[in-house]
Amino acid sequence: MIFFTLILIIYPTLCLGKINHFETHEGGSIKVGSVVSWKYDDDGKDKIAKQVIDAVDLQKKSITWKVIGGDLLELYNSFTIITSCDKQWTTWTFVYEKKIEETPEPLVLLGFALDLTKDIEGHLLKK
């Protein structure tokens, strides 16, 4: 769970070019019902995502983030991100429903998640 705690605590300061602002609106920590918002760079464009933590499974080291506002909901009816860790592996799962069939797959967001994972890994390996 340290990986995702780092996201909430230090990631906004690790990579200012990717995450421009992070704010906790409700809850204050990683727990079900906490609401957070991100301002992030998506392929050169400023984007906003507001999410509620829908589920936390400490045994599976998993957090489910449900998007409740922001740019993603312009393209998708629903968008949920499930993050999990297993030993040295981190998994990102995107569960979404497109508004129209022509809506692109969220490949840029997947690249963003990969970059985020690499940045945190690099930070942890320095310690």
Question: What would you note in describing this structure?
Answer:
With about 130 residues, the protein is an alpha+beta fold. It has one domain: Alpha-D-Glucose-1,6-Bisphosphate, Chain A, domain 4, CATH 3.30.530.20. It has four helices and six strands; from the N terminus they run ααββββαββα. A six-stranded antiparallel sheet has the order 1-2-3-4-5-6. The longest helix has 20 residues, at about 105-125. The relative contact order is 0.16. InterPro entries: Bet_v_I/MLP, MLP-like_ligand-binding, START-like_dom_sf.
Task: List key phrases describing it.
single chain, 127 residues, alpha+beta, Alpha-D-Glucose-1,6-Bisphosphate, Chain A, domain 4, six-stranded antiparallel sheet, 4 helices, 6 strands, 46% strand, globular
